[in-house]
Amino acid sequence: MKCCALVSIGDLRTPVSFKRLTTAATTGTGNEGGTSMSFAVLRATRAQVVAASGREVYAGDRVEARAMYRVTCRYFPGLLERDLVEIGGVDYNIRRIVAMNDDKSMGTKWLVVDAERGVAK
């Protein structure tokens, strides 16, 4: 995969947020002794977002639309495939994460994330 040689810092225009599912114990408000689950922002940054592919499938008299996007941002550690990426207020499932070094600069590292919209995880 050789996409990062063409990415410059000016291409990182789209604000994105990487989110992770967290759990917390509740304290007696309706669900006593239970746990609450929510998504916490792991990292908010800017990225280059490119539409990769899309498809529509007819199943059970319904149209199921799926879209793939390639998100390229500066490297940060700790991102997992079970996390989500939010682009323009819409959550996308992460399908693949690749960490890459830039060929033209002094060790700049990039994350290339393939994200999919339209399916349950």
Q: Strand share of the residues?
A: over 45%
Give the overall form.
flat
Query: Structural class of the secondary elements?
Result: mainly beta
Strand order of the largest sheet: 1-2-3-6-5-4
Number of strands: 6
Point out poorly predicted stretches.
Answer: none
Helix content: under 10%
Notes on the protein architecture:
With 121 residues, the chain is mainly β. It has one domain (4-18, 46-117). Helix content is 0%, strand content 62%. It is built from no helices and 6 strands. The chain has a 6-stranded antiparallel β-barrel. It is flat and about 50 Å long. 15% of the residues are buried.
Tell me the layout of helices and strands.
Layout lengths: L13 E12 L9 E25 L2 E13 L9 E4 L2 E12 L7 E9 L4
Concise overview:
The chain has one domain. It contains no helices and six strands. It has strands at 14-25, 35-59, 62-74, 84-87, 90-101, 109-117.
List keywords for this structure.
62% strand, mainly beta, 121 residues, 6 strands, six-stranded antiparallel beta barrel
